[in-house]
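Hi R.,

Here's the chain you asked about this morning:
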Amino acid sequence: MGPSPSPPQPLPATGRLLVLYASQTGNAMDAAERVGREAERGGCPAVDVLSMDSFDPSCLPGERSVVFVVSTTGQGDPPDSMKGFWRYLLKKDLGARWLEGLRFAVFGLGDSGYQKYNLPAKKIDRRLLQLGAEIIIDVGLGDDQHPSGLKSYITLAMMPLQIPLFQVTNQRLTKEDYEKDVRHFELEDPSSAISYQVGDALEILPSQNPSAVNAFIEHCNLDPDCYIMIMSHFATAEHEKERLQYFASPEGRDDLYQYNQKESRTVLEVLEDFPSVHMPFEWLVQLTPPLKKRAFSISSSPLVHPNQIHLTVSIVSWLTPFKRKRQGLCSTWLAGLSPNEENLIPCWVHKGSLPPPKPSIPLVLIGPGTGCAPFRAFVEERAAQSARESTAPILFFFGCGNEANDFLYKDFWLKHAQDKGVLSLKEGGGFFVAFSRDQPQKVYVQHKIKGQSARVWNILCSGAAIYVAGSSTKMPADVTAALEEVIRQKGGEAASGWLRKLERAESMYEQSVVLRDYLWGSNSA
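And here is the predicted structure, written out as tokens:
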């Protein structure tokens, strides 16, 4: 993570932490690299550590989180690598909102034995605030005179790079006796507003359950080939050694896949299957990767809930081919937390791939099941906007099994579909639900789209954006086929341009489809 020999191009800011350092003798570079390592260890999805003179300061407004590590030279002078960057920040045409949306922290390295102790760090901290940036933590002044130097401060200051939220609501949305368990979670920072937008996702780092931790890590994703191969060296029982060696061989790959991946076996279960294996703890640590964050679409608007983030989460469980019950780690952990116990949840806001739609753009939203999560945020935000300005309507197609069991957020949707709500027919919008199991013949969202072909065509002609979220299997293709049919029926010759855009969108079908240059994703855990 040291400096590159040639100036690197700025990377996309989405989801990363940028660490910029200004060093004269190398101490600030060392400290910056430590900050980067601590951030990666703490779960930051992407970290870049760069010298200040290799970063274009005009790109600063495009960043979300930046840590500055600045040393002091001479009589309170900045390092040479900071001078050009500092001159740019002093430009008079940079307004008080130039860095709005940027969160930052400044770490200074200096010696309190000098009069102008950490002056460059203090100056850059003050200037960033003047330009509209938001401080993560008070400026840190590392002191060579202090026995622990900068080390203790870095450890303390890295914590706010996460967003520690408290769970305040854990509500089941489906009926208690229904096969699917879908929850509404509300996470809160009671002391300050949370910086997020509709369209963002929340990444959560779950905890293992205590019994699994005590048994060396019960749930984790391993490289099974590597793990099985090394285990064979520690087996003392000959039949176990032979079986492990077979699993590690080319001939045993299919059986290994059935044994390990298909059954989602844990470290503990594999060790229990081979009791003669006594693997040293350091080997276990090396072979076991860190837990991965799980991402969930945010289902709330910051205009309505500035201190909260809402999530709509399906609690994942399944049976393996040998009828072992498995559960999703993160969703099960969240469901097991009690709002009464002040559980602190480590999480990160992950910026969406596109900015939220403007209030003046009509929307067609198609989201069966938990695919409705981001659209709850869209509707909530537009309803808040409509109270103070003119907004375009929303046409929303929702799908679920049946009305009695899994009509998620029923009251919310119906409220906004009444009178002058953003989903109301009076305002040019609409809310249509496909209950797939409430009648002998299955009804899905694509059938509702075709049934409302006139409304769909009219709103498309008014410049609507179409978002589809949810299942990544057949649903996106079926929805596109329904839209193509509507466009052919209603558009005649004018449909050719629309169909070309639909065809280009076919390549976007991994987890969702978005038409007319909009892309939306759905997540599961």
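One quick note: The first strand starts at residue 16 and ends at 22.

Cheers,
M.
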